[in-house]
Write a structure and sequence with these properties.
Strand content: 15-25%
Largest sheet: 9 strands, mixed
Strand order of the largest sheet: 12-20-13-19-14-18-17-16-15
Number of helices: 13
Number of strands: 21
Distance between the termini: 35 Å
CATH architecture of the largest domain: 3-Layer(aba) Sandwich
Bound molecules: zinc ion
Helix content: 25-40%
Number of domains: 2
CATH topology of the largest domain: Rossmann fold
CATH class of the largest domain: Alpha Beta
Length: about 500
């Protein structure tokens, strides 16, 4: 029986966010427990089920994931990485390991180190120089030389929103099986494409991504191609590797992988001006004007995204600028129901609300972490609700408070939550279906929130996920890069990085 080691590491690390993501932010699962906690749409689930499906013994080591946030604490990262290595060595002593199949994010970054996945893969490769190592990746991976040189083959998600995580895990597992059963000899090619792009401009439900992803599928149907991926990078991490990567794996034929990667790189470059927002998008003030103006149409609720401070893309979630604008707008108080605002990450302010439901208090909250973008709010208001140990959609448990002030019901959270499901409001006693305006710290609405929203507006606000990339203070990103730079030549062939490149 073939024995395959698996592990999962998932975090999208925003280097503009000063928060250091540490142990308390992570959901870490060890060993056999991983089998009992598999979620339907995870790449690790696709990997494990596919390998077990062909009768392999799967050796689960560690699965660690957290909501996107700032860079990860160095000691915690080493603890997790060393635990995987330790378990791998123990398993190897028991009996030979035939392959390693990983579920990685690809844009995980460590404070005072830089990239996470590259160093991790390098260490694994040193210990296991002769066995196949494959990995699934998030579509928002930042490809690096270390990653490229230390892994036999990657495959990234092809859907954003990421609805194909299971299938991508399955794909990585099938490459592993091909290498072990059919003697497949993976050769990979990587072409850098100097484009910085936010996830909101590269949804796969709209052009140009529909065409581009379709081309990946055409490529993967060609004889000898094992995987083809557009790895779109992550613009809110300032590092020298930031860019789009085209990554192709072919069986035994590096020229084929290179030819296809260059073709796909030239294609995405030629479409660079077609990337745009596909929802109503305005500056902060216009967004409020449009929303207040639309209330009379009766298509309610209107959702507004506070997109510059989106915790699901790694922002601190404690910027107060847009909330201040709403609280000080004299139209807010005239609504029939308070604006629902989700929300501000502030453990101290959350704790101050505990045991005070129904009471009027003066609360200072927000701007504890991102002190550069905004300043704290001090306001008198009523604590309307408090929920202990709230958790939904796989988020870590933490308390939530609902604080009403200046016509706004503000969610204040003890943990770094994402406003991905309407239950985050409903569980606090306010139903978004019954109000005029709901504000979420999101980019595009999640599927669950969009089911409630009758209209969706994205406000271009300030914060660690500012959608206007040209205004960000990049220091390490290699130039020229689109859209920071417009006027430069590019072709795929000159940016091909071959194996061991
Ligand atoms: Zn992603």
């Amino acid at each position: 029986m073939k024995r395959v080691l698996v592990a999962a590491l998932h975090h999208e690390s925003n280097s503009f966010n000063p928060i250091i993501t540490c142990e308390k932010d992570f959901n870490v699962i060890y060993g056999e427990d991983i089998f009992h906690k598999l979620r339907d749409n995870d790449s690790i689930t696709g990997i494990i089920k596919t390998l077990q499906g062909v009768g392999y013994e799967v050796i689960p080591t560690v699965s660690a994931r957290a909501v996107p946030n700032g860079e990860i604490d160095y000691d915690f990262y080493n603890k997790i990485k060393n635990e995987i290595i330790k378990r791998a060595k123990i398993a190897q002593e028991e009996a030979k390991i035939d392959a390693i199949t990983l579920s990685l994010h690809g844009s995980m970054r460590i404070k005072n180190q830089g990239e996470a996945e590259g160093y991790f893969l390098e260490e694994l490769r040193d210990i296991f120089p002769d066995i196949p190592i494959f990995s699934s990746l998030d579509m928002h991976t930042t490809m690096t030389k270390r990653m490229h040189n230390s892994c036999d083959g990657f495959v990234g998600y092809k859907c954003a929103p990421h609805t194909d995580c299971f299938e991508t895990g399955e794909h990585a597992a099938k490459m592993t099986i091909a290498a072990l059963e059919n003697g497949a000899s993976p050769k990979s090619a990587w072409v850098k494409v100097p484009i910085l792009i936010a996830g909101e401009q590269s949804s796969t439900n709209v052009e140009p991504m529909i065409e581009l992803i379709n081309e990946l599928r055409v490529c993967e149907r060609k004889e000898g191609i094992m995987a083809a991926s557009y790895l779109m990078g992550f613009p809110w991490a300032d590092n020298e590797d930031s860019s789009i990567a085209v990554y192709v794996v072919a069986d035994g034929n590096v020229e084929l992988a290179q030819r296809e990667a260059v073709r796909l790189a030239d294609l995405i470059w030629s479409r660079r001006n077609k990337f745009c927002f596909h929802t109503e998008t305005y500056n902060e003030k216009e967004a409020l004007d449009v929303a207040f103006g639309a209330i009379k149409d009766g298509q309610l609720p209107i959702y507004i995204s506070d997109s510059g401070d989106n915790p699901t893309a790694g922002a601190s979630s404690d910027c107060t600028n847009f909330l201040k604008l709403i609280m000080s707008d004299n139209r807010t108080d005239k609504l029939t129901k308070p604006v629902i605002y989700g929300g501000i990450y502030d453990p101290i302010a959350t704790n101050e609300c505990e045991g005070k439901v129904g009471q009027e208090i003066t609360l200072t909250f927000g701007a504890k972490f991102d002190t550069e973008t905004s300043s704290p709010i001090t306001a008198k208001g009523i604590v309307k609700a408090y929920v202990k140990d709230w958790s939904r959609a796989g988020m870590l448990k933490g308390d939530l408070a609902l604080f009403n002030s200046s016509g706004v019901d503000i969610v204040i959270s003890q943990t770094h939550v994402g406003y991905i499901v309407p239950e985050i409001f409903i569980d606090l006693g306010v139903n978004p279906k019954n109000v005029e305006i709901v504000v979420c710290k999101l980019g595009y609405l999640t599927h669950q929130q969009s089911l409630v929203a009758k209209r969706s507006i994205m406000a271009l606000t300030k914060g660690n996920t500012n959608e206007d990339l040209k205004t960000l203070n990049y220091k390490k990103v290699k130039r020229p890069i689109f859209p920071l730079d417009y006027d430069f030549e590019y072709n795929g062939i000159d940016n091909l990085i071959g194996e061991e490149g």
